[in-house]
Write a structure and sequence with these properties.
The complex is a heterodimer.
Chain A (H helix, E strand, L loop, with lengths): L6 H20 L3 H30 L1
Helix pairs in contact in A: 1-2
Chain B lengths: L8 H8 L2 H13 L3 H4 L4 H20 L12 H11 L3 H9 L11 H26 L5
Helix pairs in contact in B: 2-7, 4-7, 5-7
The chains are: A mainly alpha, B mainly alpha.
């Protein structure tokens, strides 16, 4: 079985799993963990969009 | 006059965690992702870690990512092996089954390789977290 994800889907899945682990391991209380996990997720996905636009600008 | 809070030796030991657990928890956490938290009764955290790291590793394999072997060649290959081996039991099973040797046939297979490495590296962080819980540094 082979999985062929788009670049964006792969990046979002990566962001979800990494954010979950970062949230759990880098903060102490449940509330802080959720907030930090969401913060990391937004930064990951935001970084994907920024990198995408930078590559678009470099190409054009 | 305020009575200063006194802790019994047993309470102090409980707060600091048991010495045996400080060895067992990170070892188990490395071998089975999330298990280091589960054996310390951090059920939700353990299940979330187990689901995240295992899913990430399996997705990496399904995307035909490359599994690194022990090697003494290129520095990136050595670091790739260090990352992969962080997944513990998942890496051992993968090597035993001979998975992760497929020829890279599409662009996202390289993502698969990264998924495998990062799953291992995240598991190292989780093992350290399990150790911190065991020594009482983290609730």
């Amino acid at each position: 079985m082979t999985l062929e994800l788009s670049h964006f889907t792969a990046a979002v899945l990566f962001s979800v799993f990494a954010s979950v682990v970062f949230g759990i391991t880098q903060r102490n209380t449940a509330r802080e963990q959720v907030r930090y996990g969401l913060y990391c997720f937004v930064l990951f996905v935001g970084g994907v969009f920024v990198a995408g636009w930078v590559m678009w600008l470099l190409r054009h | 006059m305020a009575n200063p809070a006194k802790t019994t030796p047993r309470e102090a030991q409980k707060a600091a965690g048991s010495p045996r657990m400080s060895v067992i928890a990170p070892a188990v956490a490395w071998f089975i992702p999330g298990a280091g938290h589960l054996i310390q009764k951090r059920w939700v955290r353990g299940i979330l870690i187990m689901a995240s790291i295992t899913t990430m590793f399996v997705l990496g394999l399904l995307m035909q990512g490359r599994v690194y072997h022990p090697n003494g060649g290129d520095i990136l290959d050595m670091l790739g092996f260090v990352g992969d081996v962080g997944a513990g039991g998942l890496y051992i099973v993968t090597r035993m089954q001979g998975w992760g040797h497929g020829a890279i046939a599409h662009a996202t297979a390289d993502y698969g390789t990264k998924f495998l490495i990062v799953a291992g590296l995240l598991n190292f962080i989780c093992a350290a977290d399990a150790y911190h819980i065991a020594i009482g540094k983290k609730p």
